[in-house]
Amino acid sequence: KNQVEQSPQSLIILEGKNCTLQCNYTVSPFSNLRWYKQDTGRGPVSLTIMTFSENTKSNGRYTATLDADTKQSSLHITASQLSDSASYICVVRGGGTSYGKLTFGQGTILTVHP
Amino acid sequence: DAGVIQSPRHEVTEMGQEVTLRCKPISGHNSLFWYRQTMMRGLELLIYFNNNVPIDDSGMPEDRFSAKMPNASFSTLKIQPSEPRDSAVYFCASSFQVTTEAFFGQGTRLTVV
């Protein structure tokens, strides 16, 4: 069964600190993995997308990594800001068909305190 | 572009009533998705359309749920009759193609009492 597991479920850090969120998946075949940020009361917004051949991709203070062999991804946030407080959702698209099915993680709730 | 527009933003209804959620996708996008989000189950894909045609409705929970896309600029998600367990935030998203980045609306928070 295709699954996406995220850890931790929630995380509290102080402003300025770094943190890393984890995403493990069992989706096969694999097409791509996307990290979304969802602010409270808003829809998710894409941060990065990674395909099989990509190991690292950055978007400002956000850096995503992908290890397709171990089926693991991480999202590293550098020098956190209060505005980083949000839910971060890992979504994996399966391959093999032209309309690859999406499998969603439950998300990690990040709270950044001043 | 104003992005994906959903209405209403909030809906409170009594059990047994019909509920209709509306979505206007981003102009030029060919794919439209309906999602449901709850604390227990997270984000779930209900159904998606490509070029106004429903492609995969396997995520629709029951026959009480139905979705239509009569034209490229409008879609509805209907629940009839509604039940308390349908309470959730319903998101609509659109993308240029099925596999390209999807842009989400603000969501409709549905409460069925």
Secondary structure topology:
The complex is a heterodimer of chains A (114) and B (113).
Chain A: E1 4-7, E2 10-14, E3 19-25, E4 30-38, E5 45-51, E6 56-59, E7 62-67, E8 72-77, E9 86-94, E10 102-104, E11 108-113
Parallel strand pairs in A: 2-11
Antiparallel strand pairs in A: 1-3, 3-8, 4-5, 4-9, 6-7, 7-8, 9-10, 9-11
Chain B: E1 5-7, E2 10-13, E3 19-24, E4 31-38, E5 42-50, E6 53-56, E7 65-71, E8 74-79, E9 88-95, E10 103-104, E11 108-112
Parallel strand pairs in B: 2-11
Antiparallel strand pairs in B: 1-3, 3-8, 4-5, 4-9, 5-6, 7-8, 9-10, 9-11
Structural notes for this entry:
With 114 residues, chain A is mainly beta. Chain A is 0% helix and 58% strand. In chain A, the strands form two sheets. In chain A, strands 2, 4, 5, 9, 10 and 11 form a six-stranded mixed sheet that branches. A five-stranded antiparallel sheet of chain A has the order 1-3-8-7-6, with no helix packed on it. Chain A starts with a strand and ends with a strand. The mean pLDDT of chain A is 93. Chain B is mainly β. Helices cover 0% and strands 55% of the residues of chain B. Chain B has no helices and eleven strands. In chain B, the strands form two sheets. In chain B, strands 2, 4, 5, 6, 9, 10 and 11 form a seven-stranded mixed sheet that branches. In chain B, strands 1-3-8-7 form a four-stranded antiparallel sheet, with no helix packed on it. In chain B, strand 7 and strand 8 form a beta hairpin. Chain B starts with a strand and ends with a strand. In chain B, 38% of the residues are buried. Chains A and B meet through strand 5 and strand 9 of A and strand 5 and strand 10 of B.
